[in-house]
User: Which sequence fits this backbone?
């Protein structure tokens, strides 16, 4: 897939909660084909502390309207600056980058498990699977109800289960404690979120021989395989999160 | 028409913009963003005799106007290079230069010998300045005797163009440049990264697995420019300026200071097409100032006064 | 209550935040912005035996995340200092330290003798690292023998606290720190500015009248932090960290790396009240991490692992 | 006069021409007393290339409405970024800094001579002199009519004479060639503009024994006399533009 560097227009900046917002983007030329799990490297203008680009997963794509969306959590100066963008502003992206989640065979029982803003790539994935005739259950974990990101879009696609650490919505506890994981037996789990969460999910899957893919968020210098900064140790030696990943099957990870 | 060409001895470069080792992969990572063949040359990522896994993650930290890295020369070794990379990179219609690294003089010599047999590689860059390798590496670049020894040894076995890349982590950069020149280097490139460090105050731990790492980017430009100026006045061979070049203006500063060519490093991470833009930018700058050949501006500050306007 | 105090021998500082020489004038320039007496100490601007006009304008250039200066130690000399400045600064209720400079060892010795007679000056900072003075200055700081000689000579005549300020423009900073310690320094401060340069591509001339100048500000922080870490592990006397500290987080990085105190330099130009804000910020940081004494975090990275979280 | 560091609110950002705009500012607390010739050091947020503060003259003060204005020419990244400020945004200033123009005795014939955006401090000066019962002629020089800044405010205070290099308005030629300077004999000239212009005015004044004060724009590191970067060579040795100036009587300058 050809990578592009392109100025896109902001079509929307919607605040979902204190820390999280959605940026809508549209291009002049028609969008390149993108796959769920892929990401964009964003140049943050006007933030003196932000020297390198910042990576964000593709959250949702609408080829018909020639737009796509990013779901971004404010984590520091760069994301703070992005949160102030207004409709009509311009943003420079390099995209689409990285590999993508695999598409399982028909009739597999699929779970998408997302923690915090790790839900970002999962909406695109859910829609993509759906368009391939695949249904997935969706399990989302948050610190508390105020941090819930799901705005009905997931429920339109599949059964949504929620866990909050303080029990303020859905099941109380960590995502990995949710009864769904005890009740159901999945064939494939796609997971994105904090590393500790993904590791717990990986252990769960290994035990049960469930196929599992996780999306990693290593620090990136370039996003295109040139700097070798984003390495992850695998059974096949060092691999690059930006080009060999960000999606890895847990079988190659040394977790 | 402005003439941008420059040469190291009889090796011609169509323009003076090269890409810096370790920041441009093997070129193909950038094929979607520019036509690599239009650059003056590319310096491939650091190569060693044996495969190296490099240092543990995290290997990178952002700093004010710069970044620290401690990649540690991850590469698959010369054999893999010969078999798998060389055939690919030799299709580029520009000077493809290999950056060589070792822990011992023998490593450098062995690499130089093998690379001298590769027809399409017209030059090597001798990296004696990598701060991210425990033994050897920077030790060569910060020791005058070792710099002499390794340059002499490689010169003895390598008949094509030999560029020696200097470490900025020294008291007297000029003596290192002169030592390399005396031992037969055809060109000097500088600077490699400055040894630096960052700490995460949240976790109270160093940001890099190796604690210290190499600083690159705009932050180092003033130091790089100073060293290039000092060196260019003190040697007769062409000097290639490196360090924090982000745009045409930065590149031009290096030419005015005495560099015959430049290498673009960290900037390619932020704009993968920037090196080619700089080629065009230099041409425009020269035209706007009424020059027809880049040679006219090289080291021009040594012939002008100082101060504003 | 968090304890922020630190000492050099029996000289107590109420907190570990000082202001760096040449960036805080004689303190009074900042009276409108903070109560100087609440700082751990102030280091006055560089003083010489004879009056000095300094270098020609332009003496400053902005660089990415930093600035170059070539002030060249403009000051009215020690006699003027004794008569006109000393009476004023001695009213501050904090440690007022004089930064001394010379071209010859005798200059330093002469200055140290005269300042030792000033009751309210409990310490001097021996600046052997100014890059902006033609003879002497940096030459001392980049030569190990000269560093030893000047430290020894000053130590012989100066009974109060002697801080030696090191130049970062050297290959092996640790050897300079150890030399100063061996010759009797009570404390080491580092870094002074990195030697750098900038060129105005419009006029095609160097930005500074002196061509090269001293780089300071956030750009140098990674290098400063690395050197402070290296030195703090290698000497027993307290180390004062300097270089690019703009805020509490930056200051804390230096403590974690092993500094016992810090100096705020260029940051005071942008926010003249910042040094006092950092005093408060350090206190808050320690509380938030559950520490009650700053000593608990000094050099803590040497006792922790590396990497993220 | 006590210096302050303060966040002020932008009340206006008016573009006068391609390169020049006016920023209006208002404080929460009441404004400090300011004098014509004094300046403010401005912190430019969101411009990665702008590390140090930027100095700008006080252009106009309205104590009653608790506002003052700056007249700014886009010269590089910092001023470019300032030009994008919007009403309601916040700007951090250190002010008022530096000395000020002297106030002459009654009945002196006064000329204010400003070149380009050198007119900035002269409006405040003209109003200030007026409030002290002094009238001044005002001579303004520009490259061409498109660059004229005078927006009627000067004419409300005194006689305005204009020179443009291309003759597109007023007299053709440099400000220093304007016939006014041949016709009239002034006792005091206050001047601000490009250095070459100020030097020519200085020569003119020396010849005729006219008292002359100029406002210098040396590069500044701090603006408060701490860095010693803004020096100007004078008959009394090096002086500081930021604290001994920016206004200097030409008698002390080595012009
Ligand atoms: C492939 C990939 C996809 C991602 N997708 C999303 C997403 O869809 N939504 C989202 O909100 N976040 C996503 N992230 C994380 C996001 O990139 C970081 O939160 C962001 O870069 C922080 O930038 P900052 O300047 O705001 O924070 P900083 O002040 O730079 O740092 C705040 C924290 O973020 C970490 N961080 C900084 N730079 C990077 C970087 N280049 N890569 C990863 N982490 C970094 C720092 O270590 C620190 O812990 C993704 C990361 C990767 C690698
Ligand atoms: C006392 C004083 C009063 C001034 N008053 C005004 C005013 O009322 N209106 C106005 O438009 N301009 C004024 N200036 C000039 C103004 O400060 C510069 O144009 C501005 O700093 C340029 O910043 P920049 O980032 O846009 O440009 P840069 O990209 O930094 O530089 C563009 C040009 O401006 C010069 N410059 C940069 N920094 C400074 C600095 N700190 N001081 C002086 N020159 C600098 C550079 O040398 C360069 O030639 C004044 C300057 C001084 C010293
Ligand atoms: C991630 C990274 C990897 C690097 N690897 C090498 C290397 O293998 N060999 C080498 O000689 N220099 C290496 N360098 C140094 C660059 O070639 C260059 O000298 C330095 O980054 C300064 O230039 P810049 O500021 O333009 O990046 C590397 C730099 C970076 C940032
Ligand atoms: C304008 C200026 C003048 C300085 N003058 C002196 C001096 O007289 N003596 C000295 O030891 N250091 C001097 N320094 C160096 C600072 O004290 C400090 O070591 C250096 O700036 C690094 O710290 P910073 O990055 O926080 O500014 C000067 C620095 C600047 C910017
Ligand atoms: S981010 Fe540069 S190689 Fe992956
Ligand atoms: S600008 Fe710092 S002394 Fe004048």
Assistant:
């Amino acid at each position: 897939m050809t990578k592009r560097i392109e100025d896109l227009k902001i079509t929307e900046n919607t605040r979902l909660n204190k820390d999280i917002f959605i940026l809508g983007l549209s291009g002049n030329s028609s969008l390149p084909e993108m796959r769920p799990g892929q990401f964009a490297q964003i140049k943050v203008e006007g933030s003196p502390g932000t020297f390198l680009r910042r990576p964000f997963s593709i959250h949702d794509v609408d080829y018909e309207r020639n737009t796509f969306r990013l779901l971004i959590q404010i984590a520091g100066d760069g994301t703070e600056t992005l949160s102030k963008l207004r409709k009509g502003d311009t943003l420079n992206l390099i995209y689409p980058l990285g590999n993508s989640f695999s598409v399982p065979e028909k009739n597999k029982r699929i779970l998408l498990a997302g923690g915090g803003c790790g839900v970002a790539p999962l909406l695109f994935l859910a829609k993509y699977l759906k368009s391939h005739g695949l249904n997935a259950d969706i399990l989302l974990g948050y610190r508390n109800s105020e941090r819930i990101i799901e705005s009905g879009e997931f429920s339109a696609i599949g059964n949504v289960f929620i866990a909050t650490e303080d029990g303020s919505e859905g099941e109380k506890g960590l995502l990995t404690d949710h009864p769904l994981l005890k009740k159901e037996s999945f064939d494939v789990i796609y997971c994105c979120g904090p590393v500790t969460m993904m590791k717990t999910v990986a252990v769960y899957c290994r035990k049960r021989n469930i196929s599992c893919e996780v999306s990693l968020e290593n620090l990136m210098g370039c996003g295109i395989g040139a700097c070798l900064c984003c390495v992850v140790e695998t059974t096949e030696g060092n691999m690059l999160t930006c080009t060999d990943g960000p999606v890895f099957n847990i079988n190659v990870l040394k977790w | 028409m402005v003439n941008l060409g420059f040469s190291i001895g009889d090796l011609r470069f169509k323009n003076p913009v090269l890409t810096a080792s370790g920041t441009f992969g093997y070129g193909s990572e950038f094929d979607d963003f520019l036509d690599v063949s239009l650059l003056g040359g590319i310096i491939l990522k650091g190569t060693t005799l044996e495969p190296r896994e490099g240092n543990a993650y995290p290997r990178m930290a952002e700093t004010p106007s710069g970044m620290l890295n401690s990649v540690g020369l991850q590469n698959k070794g010369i054999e893999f290079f010969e078999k798998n990379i060389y055939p690919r990179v030799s299709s580029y219609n520009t000077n493809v230069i290999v950056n060589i690294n070792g822990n011992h003089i023998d490593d450098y010599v062995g690499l130089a010998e093998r690379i001298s047999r590769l027809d399409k590689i017209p030059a090597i860059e001798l990296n004696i300045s990598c701060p991210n390798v425990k033994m050897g590496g920077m030790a060569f670049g910060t020791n005058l005797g070792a710099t002499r020894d390794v340059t002499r040894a490689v010169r003895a076995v390598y008949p094509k163009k030999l560029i020696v890349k200097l470490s900025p982590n020294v008291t007297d950069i000029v003596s290192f440049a002169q030592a390399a020149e005396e031992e037969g280097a055809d060109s000097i490139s500088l600077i490699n990264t400055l040894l630096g460090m960052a700490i995460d105050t949240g976790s109270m731990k160093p940001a890099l697995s190796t604690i210290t790492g190499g600083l690159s980017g705009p932050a180092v430009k003033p130091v790089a420019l100073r060293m290039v100026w000092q060196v260019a006045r003190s040697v007769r061979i062409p000097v290639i300026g490196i360090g924090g070049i982000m745009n045409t203006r930065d590149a031009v500063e290096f030419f005015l200071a005495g560099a015959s060519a430049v290498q673009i490093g960290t900037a390619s991470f932020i704009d993968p097409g920037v090196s080619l833009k700089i080629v065009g930018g230099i041409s425009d700058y020269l035209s706007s100032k009424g020059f027809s050949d880049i040679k006219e501006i090289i080291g021009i500050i040594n012939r002008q006064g100082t101060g504003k306007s």
